[in-house]
Structure to design on (1012 residues):
């Protein structure tokens, strides 16, 4: 059975637009319906996904703009299948979460959320470089309005910072993407990724193009020296929005390395491998260190994301199959963990007199055993307890890095240890210790459980059976790094001699 | 005696090809006469209607002639798809200017007939300019375009800024024209021909002639004045701010189209063999323009000034399409002119609407809180700003994509990167407008206090509730909605526009 990816892509937006047209509080229902429908299609795609086949599945390929050689080409393979599922799950959870609260101008709020889901899905499924860039930029716009319209204090300053950082990266990527299409040897301009991978650019062009793409992705993650927008942005975003932003958008950047950069610019990827590994390592160390010194619970999660994304980047630029596989799994894992963690932050803040500072929390576990249990599961998953799927992911990443650069792997191990420190610190300071002054401990409401319990169940399920992602993902991951592997063992100059 | 007489009989005139120009000129005459009639309804309704109809007729006649490629009046003018597509652009701008000024102050103060006749004759000048393939017609066109505009800028006669704007534009425009004329004369001196084809034929023999190089340099300077290319842009913010807003909108979109039309034809047809001389100079100008325009816009509180600086920056982007000297470059420039029209008209329509309904004039405060008050207008303005910034799913993104594509294909990769860097800077000020609309509360309207504080003139109705709805000024809302929607539509389905742009590019058959 074939699955129409166009339906998956556009159904959230259609729901969102319908929601704008309906009057009154009914406006949120179509958006919610769109998110449910998208999840349903994604599950059908998972069931019908043929893990023995190599190459893209459920491909949609139409010429969109013939003058520019841009195709409307969508497809799923092992690289993006689980990220697409993650996106549909988390957006549905975010919409449910948001639907439980009151918002000003709710129809606009849900419209932007729906548009954001379509944008992210488009970036994940696009198999045309220009289409990828278009969706990658487009998915940011809803977050501009969501943060600016419904965010906290200093939101305008925060979004201007956020957008200048991220769009600077994206625009550099735009020029690099156009250059890729134009400079590619061969007849006519064509942005299809499969075609571009065949026509490799000269090494000199690859290098600057690589840097432009890396800038875009590293800002979005964010990675260590380019994370300046993160603290303000995280403080200003409304929590449901922040949870999807942190859970998904950063993964799209990591995914971009695997989908676009490694196959298209393999020589440059090898050339800059050490630089990228060092940036990733710095992100792991810096993120971890900041996460156990800051006291704002949002920022603890934010800096822990910096560290986790550092791990994912390490895995990708190990340029080894194990590392890349670990990166794909870890991307899904982190999304699954960080979203409920933000949800729990919201619950904690509600019990600590509205403060998100862990110094004002404490002792919340007393009368909230269910909440404490759920939080503990999430925390264990986050610190990569053996048995959790995060453990499998980090293990594979470190295995890959070990095989590539042993020194970096040894240093990166400290990151694993630090993850348990900052995660347990958050858990202990919030749930145990002396009861905070304004803390009133109470267990979660059924409505909150509706959002949180299924997510925790997914974490548990994925922990029990991570092989599903490993198995379905393997051929695509191997294909993604194949060109870079070849470039590593056989530099471009040597290749040129072989094929005059 | 006989041969002299035979020549004196004058050239054969292809009236069909000339019909858009004839329509514009005839419309100008009819409108100025109708404006003399006594009844108010004739002056206030019939005259603008006739004016809009004339622009419509010119577009219609252009569509009829689309696909033709012929010389008119012994080769003085060239009718091809480049001429016609740009005619569509400036005539659309003309219709929008008529609609935006419908209830405005300017036509009332300057008399309706004259106002619209000037608008139409300026448009006629644009046609001559775009079609010119002779140095003399080129100059004729540029003067016919400019002189009515000098007057139009000063049509809000009781406002000092408007008069100042007209005077400034007159003085600086005249300097520009004089420079251009000097340049054209030197090109004629070097090549011995005023005809573009003749210049192109003679060019190879005189490539290193300082006379020619000076001529080219002076022509670039003169045309740069018209297109507001830095460092010849200084008049732009003041004139844009002072002129009546509908006229500002017309200048922004139509003059730009005409100026780029003639730049394309002069450099890509007549002077193409000297490309090695002028392309680096134009590339440098484009870079300066992009940086200066975007940086200049950063601190602006007046929306019209902001749009003026943004139009300087956009001129820099478009110059990239000229620099490369390819058909792709021509197409990309024409495409950008078209999408630039949509985005700017949507933005100016919102500015006009807010000028009439808040006491803040064109200050950025006039759009504060617009998202909550008037979501439709705010949506149009949002699309315009996102488009100008080059965000995907807007026509502006496609335009930038096409220009960068053309720049890189023409071996000007670095210029493509400069365009991108310019867009980054521009985000800062376009985002400010978005933030004001969606993320700030509307300021308290303290009546006279607010007006005194801003020091600006009271708007037409000074915050009158009457004009605060669609019913108060439906034509302004129409312009905002139509062009906002076009910005979105052509960002998703750009093919019809690409089709026209490619036709315009193929019209210059001498290019690759």
């Amino acid at each position: 059975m074939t699955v129409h990816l166009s339906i998956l892509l556009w159904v959230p937006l259609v729901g969102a637009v319908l929601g704008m047209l309906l009057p009154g509080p009914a406006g949120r229902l179509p958006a919610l319906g769109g998110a449910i429908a998208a999840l349903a299609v994604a599950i059908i795609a998972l069931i019908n996904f043929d893990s023995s086949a190599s190459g893209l599945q459920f491909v949609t390929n139409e010429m969109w703009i013939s003058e520019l050689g841009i195709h409307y080409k969508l497809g799923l393979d092992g690289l993006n299948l689980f990220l697409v599922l993650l996106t549909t799950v988390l957006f549905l959870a975010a919409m449910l979460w948001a639907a439980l609260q009151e918002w000003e101008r709710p129809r606009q709020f849900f419209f932007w959320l729906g548009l954001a889901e379509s944008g992210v899905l488009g970036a994940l499924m696009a198999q045309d470089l220009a289409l990828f860039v278009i969706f990658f930029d487009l998915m940011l716009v809803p977050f501009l309005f969501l943060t600016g319209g419904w965010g906290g204090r200093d939101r305008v300053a925060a979004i201007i910072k956020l957008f200048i950082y991220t769009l600077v990266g994206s625009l550099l990527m735009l020029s690099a993407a156009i250059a890729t299409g134009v400079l590619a040897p061969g007849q006519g301009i064509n942005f299809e990724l499969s075609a571009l991978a065949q026509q490799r650019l000269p090494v000199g062009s690859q290098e600057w193009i690589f840097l432009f793409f890396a800038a875009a992705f590293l800002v979005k993650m964010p990675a260590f020296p380019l994370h300046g927008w993160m603290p303000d942005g995280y403080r200003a975003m409304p929590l449901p929005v922040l949870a999807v932003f942190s859970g998904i958008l950063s993964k799209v950047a990591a995914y971009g390395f695997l989908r676009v950069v490694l196959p298209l610019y393999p020589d440059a990827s090898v050339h800059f491998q050490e630089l990228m590994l060092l940036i990733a390592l710095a992100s792991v160390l810096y993120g971890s260190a900041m996460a156990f010194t800051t006291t704002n619970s949002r920022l603890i999660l934010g800096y822990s994301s910096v560290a986790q994304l550092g791990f994912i980047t390490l895995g990708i630029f190990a340029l080894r199959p194990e590392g890349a596989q670990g990166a794909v799994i870890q991307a899904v894992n982190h999304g699954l963990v960080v979203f409920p963690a933000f949800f729990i932050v919201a619950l904690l803040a509600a019990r600590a007199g509205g403060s998100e500072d862990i110094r004002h929390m404490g002792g919340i576990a007393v009368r909230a055993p269910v909440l404490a249990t759920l939080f503990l599961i999430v925390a264990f998953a986050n610190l990569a307890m053996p048995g959790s799927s995060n453990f499998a992911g980090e293990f594979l990443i470190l295995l890959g890095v070990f095989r590539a650069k042993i020194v970096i792997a040894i240093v990166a191990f400290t990151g694993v240890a630090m993850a348990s420190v900052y995660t347990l610190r958050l858990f202990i300071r919030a749930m145990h210790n002396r009861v905070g002054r304004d803390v009133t401990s109470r267990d979660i409401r059924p409505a909150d459980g509706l959002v949180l319990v299924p997510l925790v169940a997914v974490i548990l399920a994925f922990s029990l059976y991570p092989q599903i992602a490993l198995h379905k993902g393997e051929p695509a991951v191997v294909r993604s790094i194949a060109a870079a592997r070849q470039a590593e063992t056989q530099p471009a100059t040597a290749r040129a001699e072989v094929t005059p | 005696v006989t041969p002299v007489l035979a020549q004196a009989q004058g050239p054969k005139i292809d009236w069909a090809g000339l019909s858009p120009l004839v329509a514009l000129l005839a419309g100008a005459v009819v409108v100025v006469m109708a404006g003399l009639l006594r009844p108010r309804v004739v002056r206030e309704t019939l005259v603008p209607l006739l004016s809009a109809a004339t622009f419509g007729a010119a577009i219609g006649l252009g569509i009829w002639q689309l696909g033709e490629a012929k010389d008119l009046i012994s080769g003085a003018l060239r009718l091809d798809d480049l001429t016609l597509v740009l005619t569509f652009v400036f005539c659309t701008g003309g219709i929008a200017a008529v609609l935006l000024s419908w209830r405005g102050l300017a036509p009332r103060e300057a008399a309706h007939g004259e106002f619209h006749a000037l608008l139409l004759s300026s448009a006629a000048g644009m046609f001559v300019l775009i079609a010119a393939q002779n140095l003399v017609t080129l100059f004729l066109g540029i003067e016919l375009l400019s002189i009515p505009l000098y007057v139009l800028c000063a049509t809000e006669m009781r406002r000092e800024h408007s008069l100042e704007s007209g005077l400034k534009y007159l003085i600086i425009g005249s300097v520009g024209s004089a420079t251009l004329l000097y340049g054209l004369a030197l090109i004629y001196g070097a090549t011995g021909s005023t005809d573009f084809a003749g210049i192109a034929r003679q060019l190879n023999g005189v490539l290193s002639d300082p006379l020619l190089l000076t001529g080219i340099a002076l022509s670039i300077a003169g045309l740069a004045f018209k297109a507001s290319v830095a460092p010849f842009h200084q008049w732009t913010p003041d004139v844009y701010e002072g002129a009546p807003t509908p006229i500002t909108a017309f200048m922004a979109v139509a003059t730009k189209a005409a100026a780029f039309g003639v730049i394309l034809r002069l450099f890509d047809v007549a002077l193409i063999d000297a490309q090695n001389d002028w392309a680096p100079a134009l590339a440098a100008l484009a870079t300066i323009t992009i940086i200066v325009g975007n940086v200049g816009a950063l601190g602006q509180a007046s929306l019209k000034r902001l749009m003026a600086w943004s139009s300087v920056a956009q001129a820099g982007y478009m110059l990239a399409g000229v620099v490369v000297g390819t058909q792709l470059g021509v197409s990309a420039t024409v495409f950008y002119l078209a999408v630039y029209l949509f985005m700017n008209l949507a933005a100016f329509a919102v500015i006009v609407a807010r000028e009439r309904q808040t006491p803040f004039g064109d200050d950025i405060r006039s759009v504060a809180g617009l998202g909550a008050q008037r979501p439709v207008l705010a949506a149009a303005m949002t699309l315009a700003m996102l488009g100008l910034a080059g965000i995907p799913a807007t026509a502006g993104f496609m335009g930038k994509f096409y220009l960068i594509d053309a720049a890189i294909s023409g071996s000007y990769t670095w210029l493509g990167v400069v365009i991108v860097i310019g867009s980054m800077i521009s985000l800062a000020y376009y985002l400010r407008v978005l933030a004001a609309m969606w993320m700030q509360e509307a300021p308290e309207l303290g009546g006279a206090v607010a007006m005194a504080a801003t020091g600006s003139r009271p708007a037409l109705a000074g915050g009158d509730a009457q004009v605060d709805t669609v019913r108060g000024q439906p034509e302004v809302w129409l312009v905002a909605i139509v062009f906002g929607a076009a910005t979105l539509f052509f960002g998703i389905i750009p093919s019809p526009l690409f089709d026209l742009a490619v036709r315009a590019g193929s019209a210059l058959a001498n290019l690759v």
Notes: Confidence is low (pLDDT under 50) at residues 447-467 of chain B. The interface with chain A takes residues 331, 371-372, 375, 386, 390-393, 397-398, 400-402, 404-405, 408-409, 413, 416-417, 419-421, 423-424, 427-428, 431-432, 434-435, 438-440, 494-495, 498, 502 of chain B (CB under 8 Å). The first strand of chain B starts at residue 70 and ends at 72.
